[in-house]
Amino acid sequence: MSENTVNGIPAAPHPLREFWSYFSENRGAVAGLAVIVTITFMAVFADLIAPYSPIEQYRDHLLQPPFWQEGGSAAFPLGTDAVGRDMLSRIIHGARYSLLIGIIVVTLSLSAGITLGLAAAFLRGTVETLIMRAMDIMLALPSLLLAIVVVAILGPSLINSMFSLAIVYLPHYVRLTRASAIGEMSKDYVTASRVAGAGVPRLMLITVLPNCAAPLIVQATLSFSSAILDAAALGFLGLGAQPPTPEWGTLLAEAREFVLRAWWVVTFPGLAILVTVLAFNLMGDGLRDALDPKLKR
Amino acid sequence: MGGDIPAHPALRPLHRLTVFRFFITRFGMVVPTFFGVTVVAFFLIRLIPGDPIELLVGERGIDPERHAYLLKEFGYDRPLWQQYLGFVGNLLQGDFGTSIVSREPVLSEFLTLFPATIELSFMAIVFALAIGLPVGILAAVRRGSVFDHTVMGISLTGYSMPIFWWGLLLIILFSGILGWTPVSGRISVLYYIEPITGFMLIDSLLIDEPGAFKSAFRHLILPTIVLGTIPLAVIARQTRSAMLEVLGEDYIRTAHAKGLGPARIIGLHALRNALIPVITTIGLQTGVLLAGAILTETIFSWPGVGNWLVNSIYRRDYPSVQGGILLIACIVITVNLLVDLAYGLINPRIRHAGRS
Fold first, then answer.
1. Which residue has the higher pLDDT, A227 or B55?
2. How much is the ipTM here?
3. CA of A137, closest CA in chain B: separation in Å?
4. Which of A2, A5, B144, B208 has its CA 20 to 30 Å from the CA of residue B160?
5. Cα–Cα distance measured from residue B150 to residue B93, given in angstroms and rounded to the nearest whole number
């Protein structure tokens, strides 16, 4: 916002610095980032932080409540599940799966989406029509439903649920890439590059693509949170990660039958999902404002 | 909705033509989408390892002679494009396949269960509107206040909510601890309701049995809240931002200058214009609602199409999955089309597009 002038010469801030100054204005976004960093730390060092193995069963401590409730003990701070596994350890290890799901889903659909979107923008004509029509068809089905269909074909597993979500989010990236690439292509710098003799691959990847990055980064953050949420939903329906994998949605699926007997096996995994998804959504909002000050309300 | 701007007589035929062209273009875009959905649904079953007869007999196995006979009998030995044409031909005659589990036509199973899903979705959207609209308006009017920040915070939380967990939490609180609401189903087992309209709230009134309606209503409360949460968050946010945009317009300042009271300005001048994007948002929530219905119905054992679809997947009843997906896609496409058309009719900027 404010321009620093030293001795009358405007000092151009480093782009990253400028970005940070916009980003840090948004307290929610910074809080989201802090939570994400914490969860990433938890996921990376899960083996060191978690008090127990996530699949070790302590048969003497079935459905033990958290430590502050009667019958609970500090040995199992968040209690144990129906076969005596430590809830805290399972949730800490679950962070690994959620982040992994987000990373893989976003990487897959982002790279495929950029490829198809650039192809549509540069080749136009029949190729563009075919690609965009196919994307319209995919958008006609509710995302979770489409993911369920794909999983129904491939069979329920963690890998297949990630793959199905990558397919489901594809249309958003294709549309976004195509729209911003077409917008950029009419600009002078692209024409200049073309006149200077740049070939199509160079124009695509080096001239145009970096200038489409901002909306793609925002979309990537937001679909990271959708991926975590939808993968958890698939896990909950028994169509995602399979037990004993400590994926958060799968934890909830296992906890369902104890809903009225042991609130802790239901409450904590869901809380972990909510906090993580909320953090990514907060950060996504902040990124959108910081990367595109024009959109700032 | 929205008073018609009286057109100059000379312009009227042109106007009608524009609307007509808008409708035709919009319909023209839907046809390939429908076509694509049938292709996807057709190849869905073909992608599963094993041919349809092997799927049909399942684990039991079948001797090769009978296998070949059945393949011929059901036409699976014909070229794929012929099979596809046959499939589309059947669809056009209302034949969406037959469930391998119940041996019932998929369409009639779907139609029996669909009212339960409509009832739940309708209640959810009413719930979301009843809270989302006033809260969004108030947040916009008191922009920057504590109320505004709280509403936006809660709505972002609602938007990030894993609704299957939210449902379980509500069950713990309202059914477990407080004992106010039932855990699952549409009505207490004490009442036997012969479906007349298929909507439990109406049917329970029609049978004239005391307590039946109350029981049906109590069963609806938690599922409604769970399914309505994400639409509520979306509607509150959308209403707020649409109101903020409208409140900054010149005609609002004019209305203030004319000395109109705030209630009249907000209720009449601002709200009417802010509602256009909000209505679109509501229409586009259909897909969200149907996807949410899958989770909500699973949690509350609600006998609707979402629950049925998930169970069909568990039972590997592929014809039901195929038919169900097709029907749901058709519903979503149709509703989105209707929303677009309604939007075109309400919004003068689209209605009169191409005239200037």
1. A227
2. 0.85
3. 5
4. B144
5. 53
